[in-house]
Design goal:
single chain, mainly beta, Elongation Factor Tu (Ef-tu), domain 3, 2 domains, disordered C terminus
Amino acid sequence: MFTGLVEELGIISKITQTEIWIEASVVMKDLGIKDSISVNGACLTVVDLKENTFRVDVVPETLSRTDLGYLAIGDKVNLERSAQLGGRLGGHIVQGHVDGTAAITSIVEDGTSWSIEFQIPNTLSRYIVEKGFICVDGASLTVVNCDEKSFSIALIPYTKDNTVLGLKRVGSTVNIETDIIGKYLEKLSTGDQANIELD
């Protein structure tokens, strides 16, 4: 989670089709590998750190939705670390309350990333929105596409190598937790008070 308050301007020191290296100072003070960081408003994962430089991976979906693909060496970017509530909160609000399971129906390599599609029960599809949050086996991910029967995510190499998602195959089952905000909004909009106990 971020606040939208830019902490500093970083400088692109190296860039490829799949990776960006950024020189920084303020955010480096307590930045760690696996931390989320906002780069020009795009939440990316820190996958490597040097004394004054960090590296993030970028996937085709990120490049198609942002201006990161147009960056060049020497360009400046806005940087912000994840928000703190007694500690850094990367990803999104995950409760650890599994809503159900989904089956992997497709794994397609897309350059150095993987597009994974999941078949979901109709009871969960209403809580899943394009570019919304989704928790898959405890990993906070972004929904790339969705409909009433399925959704897909883009998996970067770091996540593939450091979570159980890298071990999954077509037909594997995963635990799904949808974004809690959608559930609250649905309850408020329908006026369903059946499960609320009043003193």
